[in-house]
Every structure is written in structure tokens, then in C-alpha cells.
Design a protein that fits this description.
- The N and C termini lie far apart (about 65 Å).
- The longest helix has about 30 residues.
- Helix 3 packs across helix 4 and helix 10 packs antiparallel against helix 12.
- The relative contact order is 0.08.
- The strands form two sheets. The protein has a five-stranded mixed sheet with strand order 3-2-1-4-5. The protein has a two-stranded antiparallel ribbon with strand order 6-7.
- Strand 4, helix 4 and strand 5 form a beta-alpha-beta unit.
- It folds into three domains: about 130 residues, Nucleotidyltransferase, domain 5 (2-Layer Sandwich); about 60 residues; about 130 residues, no CATH class.
- It is α/β, with parallel strands linked by helices.
């Protein structure tokens, strides 16, 4: 493998080198630090081997060069680990996966925490690539599974709709603030009307896309049998969480969205109030918040809401609890393949 500069060696020096030599690494691992225009890659092999480094463009031509370089290093099927950095990781991930490399996409928070355990003081792209590769050797993160094309397109359409909604609201806010120039006011009104037209067009495209795929359409209709889940929140669930049956239990889905309770207790003096982790999909969390506000008014949730109110829960806490309940119900109807039944618990109790 190619030699690396002194700064990159520093990422694997001291305590890190000791840790590196204690692990029996059976195969090389490629770590990639992703940026908008470039990819810094570090190939770590067995103990005693010199890490290999390469920097390429974050383009299709760069992906081909990286795959060729890996083959030259004798690592044509080496596992790859990288961080989920915006959307910049998607191209290289698909290319490496198609070339036969198992790819793991890791939450940047995990890499940051790993950096702290190794007391790394400097931060460069090359060092980050080496750190990510080392993380892959030690922790063997789960391989990434490419989403189906239909689900990936639904996510793109859903996020485009969210962008248009945000743009229209921004223009409405500026319009309400007023302008001393009549031309500016008229142009803003025209822009708002145009954005409304594009929103209608993307919503029609989402509807047609769902109808073209029977599995998505069936899940879309089934989710709406749950009180409070409407067309937009059903699309949000399918677009951002994908196939809900891929989760083993509803708690995983709750954690994926980031509405799982998080406690902070230490000793006898530190007892901070619990709050949701927010370590999850923010887009889906926002969509479910609105669904929970609507669900609170439904008769099915009335006893649940009343119990929480009697226990002294604040309105926001109740909405979050309803969000979690909606996720449990969504998981249940998709996993079972059956529509929501408000009498399900009563029937199960009677059968027992």
C-alpha cells in the first residue's frame, strides 16, 4: 500500500497504535471521509501494514478510479465505511455497492464519539478517513442496504414537496410584512401562486407514483385507517421510514424517528427532566407532530389523553406520547398486513 503523510500516521499513533495491534484484522477496511467535491479514502489492512491513502473527486469518474485503485491494492471486495454527510455520500455508496463492496453508512455522531475515545487532537480529511476505517475494523457496522427505486423516488418527491412548502411559507411571511413597492407586492403574489401550482403538481405526482406500485399503495391506504394519519403523514412514513416491517419491534421505529424518552440521572443530586432524544429523522418527526395534534381530537385516543392529563402531563408531553402511539399502531398495521381495528385489544382480551 502507498505510504501516508505524517499527519495521517498521527491518527494511528500512541494509544491508537496499541489498540490497532491488539486486534486481529482478517481483511482490509476502507474508510472514506466525504465532502461535496472530494473523497478522502484510507485503506487499513492487517497489523504491520502501512495504510494506503487516496483522494479522488466526488464524481462518477472518481468512483471508477477508486474502485480500480482498490483492485490494485488487492482489496477488490474490501468492506467500506463512511459517514452519512448530507446527500454527498449517495453516489459513491451506490457505485461501491454495485462493484461488490459491502458498504456501511454510519451516523456521524458515532464517529465523533469514537474520536473522543481515542483522544485525537487534530482533524484533517485524511485523518478522518483513517479514523473511520479504524472504526470499521473495531465495530463492524451493519452493511447498508440500497433502497428500492420506488421508495427512493417517493422520498425525493416527498422532500421536494417539503421544500416547496417552506419556500411558499417564506414568501407568504414576506408578503404579510408588506412592501412600499407595488411591483414587489404583485411579484410576490405571483410567486406564491406559482409555488402553489408546483405543490399541486408534485402532490399529483406522488399520488400517481403510489398507484403505480401496489405494495406502496396498499400501505398508503392501510396507514390512513389509523385515526389521525392522513395522506400527507402516510406519505411521510413511507418516504422516510420505508418498509415499516423491516423493524423488528415498534421501539426501533420510535428510536428511528427520535421520539424515544431520554433520561439524565447521575448519583443522588443530578436528576434532570426526561425529554425525547431527537436523534432520529427530523422530517418524519415534524410530520408526525401534526398528525398527533389531529389524533388527540379523535375518540379513540380520548381515554389515553385523559389518563395523561390526570397524571399531570403537559400538552406537549401528551402530543409526544400520541406520536409514539401512532408509530406503534403504524408498525402494527404494516407488520400484520391488516387495517386498523379500534376493537383489537378488546377482541384479544376476550379471546384470552
Amino acid at each position: 500500500m502507498h505510504k501516508v503523510d505524517r499527519q495521517t500516521r498521527g491518527c494511528l499513533s500512541g494509544a491508537q497504535t496499541l489498540l490497532y495491534r491488539k486486534v486481529n484484522v482478517m481483511s482490509a477496511v476502507l474508510g472514506i471521509d466525504v465532502s461535496k467535491t472530494t473523497l478522502d479514502a484510507c485503506l487499513l489492512g492487517d497489523p504491520g501494514q502501512t495504510p494506503g491513502m487516496i483522494q479522488i473527486a466526488n464524481t462518477a469518474a472518481g468512483f471508477s478510479a477508486l474502485i480500480q485503485w482498490l483492485a490494485q491494492q488487492g482489496a477488490a471486495d474490501a468492506p467500506v465505511v463512511l459517514e452519512a454527510t448530507g446527500r454527498y455520500w449517495l453516489g459513491v455508496t451506490h457505485a461501491l455497492n454495485a462493484a461488490g463492496h459491502p458498504v456501511s453508512v454510519v451516523n456521524p455522531a458515532r464517529i465523533k464519539a469514537f474520536r473522543g475515545t481515542l483522544l485525537v487532537r487534530n482533524k484533517t480529511d485524511a485523518q478522518d478517513a483513517a479514523l473511520i476505517a479504524r472504526f470499521g475494523q473495531l465495530h463492524h457496522p451493519e452493511p447498508w442496504t440500497p433502497p428500492e427505486a420506488a421508495q427512493e423516488r417517493l422520498r425525493a418527491l416527498f422532500r421536494h414537496r417539503q421544500t416547496l412548502l417552506k419556500m411558499r411559507q417564506q414568501e407568504r411571511n414576506r408578503h404579510q410584512a408588506g412592501s412600499s413597492a407595488a411591483w414587489v407586492t404583485a411579484d410576490r403574489e405571483a410567486h406564491i401562486e406559482w409555488l402553489s401550482g408546483r405543490l399541486k403538481a408534485v402532490e399529483q405526482e406522488i399520488h400517481q407514483h403510489l398507484k403505480l406500485h401496489p405494495d406502496l399503495w396498499a400501505a398508503f391506504k392501510r396507514l390512513q385507517t389509523i385515526p389521525g394519519i392522513g395522506p400527507h403523514s402516510a406519505v411521510a412514513l413511507l418516504a422516510e421510514a420505508g418498509d415499516l416491517s423491516r423493524f423488528d419491534h415498534p421501539g426501533q421505529l420510535v428510536a428511528y424517528v427520535g421520539v424515544n424518552p431520554q433520561q439524565h440521572l447521575s448519583g443522588s443530586s443530578i436528576h434532570k427532566p426526561s425529554h425525547i432524544s431527537k436523534k432520529g429523522n427530523a422530517r418524519l418527526r415534524c410530520a408526525l407532530y401534526m398528525a398527533a395534534v389531529a389524533a388527540k381530537q379523535q375518540a379513540y385516543f380520548a381515554p389515553f389523553v385523559q389518563r395523561l392529563e390526570a397524571s399531570g402531563h403537559c400538552p406537549l408531553s401528551i402530543v409526544i406520547a400520541v406520536m409514539r402511539k401512532l408509530l406503534h399502531l403504524a408498525f402494527g398495521v404494516i407488520k400484520s398486513g391488516q387495517d386498523f381495528d379500534p376493537l383489537y385489544l378488546d377482541k384479544r382480551a376476550a379471546a384470552a
